Amino acid sequence: MTATHQALWVDRRGTFRVGPAPTPTPRPGELVVEAHAVALNPVDAMPGVARRFVYPWLRLPTVLGTDVAGTVVAVGEGVSRFRIGDRVVGFASGQERFRNDPAHGAFQHVVVLAADLTAHVPDEVALTDAVVLPLALTTAAAGLFEPDQLGLPLPVGTPVKAGDERDETVLVWGAATSVGNNAVQLARAAGYRVVATASPRSAALVLGLGASAVVDYRGRSAVDEVVAALEGHTLAGTVAIGAGSLSRTIRVARRTQGTRRVASAYPSPVTAVRRQLARPYGVRVSAIWGGSPARSAVGPAMFRDVLPVALAHGRYRPSPPAEVVGEDLASIPAGLERLRGGVAARKLVVRLRRDPDPR
């Protein structure tokens, strides 16, 4: 590899520029991956002021991005699962507090990944499809499985057979989102029945991912319809995704049998206020941090034990569908601008070519 490669840097003002970055050498437990595709997430599209609120520890300039897929070009000491040339997808942890390192940001041609947060991609799955998974997967997994969230048992590698499902239901409010798509699949993989909400145009997609019932969240009777769909079933927990989801899922939890734990994927001051207001009713609200599995047993379980096997056997769908919106690093800012305007039922992806100037 050359001494430098090209990266998309962001400064304190939120200004992006493509420029050189030192090509890293992997430390123990790490991989170096040549990126072929990156996916864009709302957290990447935040303006500078909002980014400083969400990531107050972040040293700038840095390289953003969490979702990356490509091929392994170097393997660190102690890593036995991967070889040079393997096709992989991984969670780039450069923005996390414990990491805070541009070498681990996704928006560049050469990325450092923790081996425990990386999964093999089968040949039949395009890297531009697989790359939609990492942050949405870890956010959904955090909400479902972290002990301070819903704390559900982790999925096992083998599929749950008909008749062996748990006699409990998980509610996924906002199932047509990236996080929701993954929450439905992971809850089913863990053996739970799933009731979900989505718009009518996304209902078929959500049912295809494994939900037993889908309610239109926009209707005035949505809460009543969800309660009816849960009748006769024990609620194992709720994942609330999107603006407006928390108040309605709290109302559902108060009216159903089972746990009253609600994990919100909308961490904001409003979530903190609603957490306090819900306590007198026995409803426990928690705020999901999508990067928490990078520091817990949940992340390695997803990328080492669950995802590779499920992808290889066609039991896990990279979803929502990828839409390629560019072919190089310079096209990422325009993709982020489009993302800020709102994107539904798909994930924006940029395909990366090899450095045109590898010096």
Automatic annotation (TrEMBL):
What are the protein's GO molecular function terms? oxidoreductase activity, acting on NAD(P)H
Q: Which InterPro entries match?
A: ADH-like_N, ER, GroES-like_sf, NAD(P)-bd_dom_sf, Trans-enoyl_RdTase-like
Q: Where is the Enoyl reductase (ER) domain?
A: 14-350
Database matches in Pfam families = ADH_N
The protein, known as: NADPH:quinone reductase-like Zn-dependent oxidoreductase
